[in-house]
Amino acid sequence: MLANIVVVVAGVVALSVLPTAVVPPASPLAGAATSTATGAPEGNPSPSPQADLPSADLPPPVPATPESARQVKANEVGAVPVLMYHRIMKKRLASIDRTPSQVRKEMEKLARNGYVPITAREFVTGKIDIPAGKHPVVLTFDDGHASHFALDDGGTPVKDTAVGIIYEVARKYPGFRPVATFWVNRHPFGLQGEQDQARAVQWLTSHGFEVANHTWSHPYLPGLSKKRVAEQIVRVERLLKKLGGGPSDTLALPFGAMPRKKSTVQAGGWRGDRFAFKGVFLAGAQPSSSPFAKDYDWRAIQRIQSNGKKGECRKWCSQYWLEWLGKHPERRYTADGDPGQISVPQGLRGNIDPRWKQRINAY
Which of 301, 291, 303 is nearest to 352 (CA)? Predict the structure, then answer.
C-alpha cells in the first residue's frame, strides 16, 4: 500500500510546501531565542546543561530469539515515520508552522504510543537500538530556525523551543529518548556570530542530537547546475566543520525537490572539498520503508509533514499517518530489542534486503 501512495501524493505535498517554505526565517521568537543562545560564559564552547536533562544514551542490547521476537510481534521491515517540522511559533504564519502546544501534544502522543526517537543518521545506518516492542520515530527540523534551539543563562534549552519541548516530554515519559535531527543552512538557529553558532552545534552534538546539511541558501535545486548544487552542499559542510560538527551523513533537500540527476546530491565535490551522504531526505508524504527492506531507497527517503487532518493534509500529514499506523500495527516497524538482528515474521523474511540476510531472525 505505502509504495503505491507516494506516486499519488508526492506532488501534492511538494506544491503545498513550495510557497510557504520561502518565508524568511525571522519570527517573533527569533530575537528572544537568539539573545538567550549567547548567554553562555566566555571561553566555554560547550555550555553544561542542568543535571536534570534526560539522557540520550542507547539502552543495553538484549539478544533476540524467535520466541522473544514473537512475544513482542517484532517487525523490523515495517514502516517508520520520519516527521518533518519547520518553525515553532506561538502564532502560525504559514501552513507548515506548528505551535509549541501542537508539537508538545504530538510528541506526548508518540511517547504514549510506544515511539522512541532516533536520529536520521542512526536511521540510515541501521542503528535502530530501541527496546523490544517499541517503534522508532525520526524527528527532523528543517532550516535551523531560532525556534529550534536556544540556551538560557543557566545553559538549559529554552522552553517552547524544539529542544526544550523534547526534553520536557522526555522528563514526563522516560522512554522518550531526547534526540532529533536539525538540518541547517548558513545561519544555524538564527545565529549570526561564529562563536555562538559553534556553541549551539557543539552543545547539540554532545547531547546526542544530529546537526546536518540542508544547503547553504535553501535554493530550488532542480534549477541549478551540478556545480552550483555541489557548492551549496560543500559550503554547509565547511561551516559545520569550522563549528565543530560534521561531516554530515544526511541531507534534507530544500522543498523536497530532487535535482534532475539524483547522483548530484549523493556524493560530489567543489573546490577541493568532498561530500558523501548515507541518506537523502525528501519532503514527502508517507512513512519511510525500513532501512532493512528491499524497497528502501536511501537516495530518496520519505518524510511526513507534522500537521493535522485539514485541507490537503486530510490524508498525507502526521495526524493521519500516526492514526493509520496505530490501526495497522502489523505494517509498523516494531523492534526486537537487539540491534544485531533483524526480526520479522516468517512470511516477511523475503522483504529483507539480501545485504542483511546474515542478521535475519525469523519467527
Answer: 291
Task: Supply φ then ψ for residue 228, to 5 degrees.
Answer: -70, -35
Give the amino acid at 127.
K
Cβ distance 46 to 154 under 8 Å? no
For the chain, the domains span: 2-21+33-41+81-327
pLDDT tens, 215-257?
999 999 999 999 999 999 999 999 999 999 999 999 999 999 9
Helix (H, G, I), strand (E, B) or coil at 77: coil
The rounded distance, in Å, linking the Cα atoms of 101 and 147 is 13
pLDDT tens-digit map of 120-145: 999 999 999 999 999 999 999 999 99
How many beta carbons lie within 10 A of that of residue 161, not counting itself? 26
The residue-averaged pLDDT of 291-319 equals 97
User: What is d(CA 88, CA 97) in angstroms, rounded to the nearest whole number?
Assistant: 6
DSSP alpha helix (H) spans, the chain: 2-21, 30-37, 66-72, 100-112, 120-124, 162-172, 194-206, 226-243, 313-316, 318-327
Instruction: Give the residue from 156, 219, 225, 161 showing the smallest Cα distance to 189.
Output: 161
Number of DSSP helices (H) and strands (E) in the chain, helices first: 10, 12
Question: What is the 3 state secondary structure string of 144-213?
Answer: CCCCCCCECCCCCECCCCHHHHHHHHHHHCCCCCCCCEEEECCCHHHCCCHHHHHHHHHHHHHCCCEEEE
* Distance between first and last Cα of the chain: 24
pLDDT of residue 17: 37
| pLDDT surpassing 90 at residue 86 | yes
Q: Strands 342-344 and 360-362: what pairing?
A: parallel
For range 79-83, the mean pLDDT: 99
For 163-220, write each residue's pLDDT tens digit.
Answer: 999 999 999 999 999 999 999 999 999 999 999 999 999 999 999 999 999 999 999 9
Peptide bond into 339 cis (omega under 30): no
Cβ pair 137, 65 in contact under 8 A: no
In the CATH scheme, what is the homologous superfamily, with its name and number, of domain 2-21+33-41+81-327? Answer: Glycoside hydrolase/deacetylase (3.20.20.370)
